[in-house]
C-alpha cells in the first residue's frame, strides 16, 4: 500500500469484528511508528497497548460507569474551547449530522446519540486498543508531536490491513483507564485508540473535508 492510499483509506472506524490482532503486528507497527518526528527528538509519547483480559476488564469497568450514569472525571485538558467559532462550529455540526444520520439517528434523539457515543467505551468492539499519555510538564509543541506519532501509527495499521479510531472520549474516564494501567502520576492521558479489523456491517458515512483554498494559502509570484 502506498502512502497516499494509506492516508485516504484511513478513517475513524467505529465497528470492529472480534478477530484478534496478532501481538507481532502491533509490535511491528509501534516499532516503525517510533520513527515519527518530534521536536528535538523528545519522543514524548507514552503508550500502553491492551488486548485480551485487561482490555475486557477496562471495557467492563467503563461500561459500568456508563450504565450508572457516573459523572465524567474532571478534565486534565479541554477537548474543545467552550465556544467554537466559525468555521470550526459548522464543521463540528456537519460531522455530528453525518455521523448520526449514517446510524439512522435523528438529531433530536438525545438518548440514541448517547447510546451510539457509549460504544466508545467498548472500543467499538475492537480486540486491541492503545492509550497514549504525555508528561504533564510538556507543552503544546510536544502535544502536537503526539498527533504526528498517532497518525503514523494509524497509517501503519492500514498497511497491515487494520483500521483504527482515535478516541479522546477515553479521557473522560481517565481514572478508570488508570485503574487498569497504573500509569505514573506525572502522565496525562491524551487519548485511546481502538484497533482491529473493520466490521463492514456497521454503517459509515465518509467525512468530508474543506476545500484546499479554505485551509492552504500558496504564496508565489
Ligand atoms: C485526537 C482525536 C480524537 C478523537 N476522538 C474521537 C472519539 O473520542 N470518538 C470517536 O468516535 N471519534 C473520535 N475521533 C475521530 C474523529 O471524529 C474523526 O477523525 C473525524 O471526524 C474525521 O473523520 P475520519 O477520521 O473518518 O476521516 C477523534 C479524532 C482525533 C484526531
From TrEMBL:
PANTHER family from the UniProt entry: IODOTYROSINE DEIODINASE 1, NADPH NITROREDUCTASE
Keyword Oxidoreductase applies: yes
Name assigned to this protein: Nitroreductase
Top-level taxon of origin: Bacteria
Residue span, Nitroreductase domain: 8-196
Keyword annotations of the record: Flavoprotein, FMN, Oxidoreductase
Protein's UniProt keywords contain Hydrolase: no
Matches recorded under CDD domains: PnbA_NfnB-like (cd02136)
Pfam families: Nitroreductase
Amino acid at each position: 500500500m502506498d502512502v497516499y492510499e494509506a492516508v485516504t483509506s484511513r478513517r475513524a472506524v467505529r465497528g470492529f469484528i472480534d478477530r484478534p490482532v496478532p501481538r507481532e503486528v502491533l509490535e511491528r507497527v509501534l516499532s516503525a511508528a517510533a520513527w515519527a518526528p518530534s521536536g528535538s527528538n523528545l519522543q514524548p509519547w507514552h503508550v500502553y497497548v491492551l488486548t485480551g483480559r485487561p482490555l475486557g476488564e477496562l471495557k467492563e469497568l467503563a461500561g459500568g460507569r456508563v450504565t450508572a450514569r457516573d459523572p465524567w472525571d474532571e478534565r486534565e485538558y479541554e477537548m474543545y474551547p467552550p465556544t467554537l467559532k466559525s468555521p470550526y462550529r459548522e464543521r463540528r455540526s456537519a460531522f455530528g449530522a453525518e455521523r448520526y444520520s449514517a446510524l439512522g439517528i435523528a438529531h433530536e434523539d438525545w438518548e440514541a446519540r448517547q447510546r451510539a457515543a457509549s460504544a466508545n467505551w467498548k472500543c467499538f468492539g475492537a480486540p486491541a486498543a492503545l492509550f497514549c499519555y504525555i508528561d504533564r510538564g510538556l507543552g503544546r509543541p510536544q502535544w502536537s508531536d503526539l498527533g504526528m506519532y498517532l497518525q503514523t501509527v494509524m497509517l501503519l495499521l492500514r498497511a497491515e490491513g487494520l483500521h483504527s479510531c482515535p478516541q479522546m472520549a477515553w479521557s473522560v474516564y481517565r481514572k478508570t483507564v488508570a485503574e487498569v494501567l497504573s500509569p505514573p502520576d506525572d502522565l496525562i492521558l491524551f487519548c485511546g485508540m481502538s484497533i482491529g479489523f473493520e466490521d463492514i456491517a456497521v454503517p459509515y458515512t465518509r467525512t468530508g473535508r474543506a476545500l484546499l483554498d479554505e485551509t492552504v494559502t500558496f504564496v508565489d509570484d
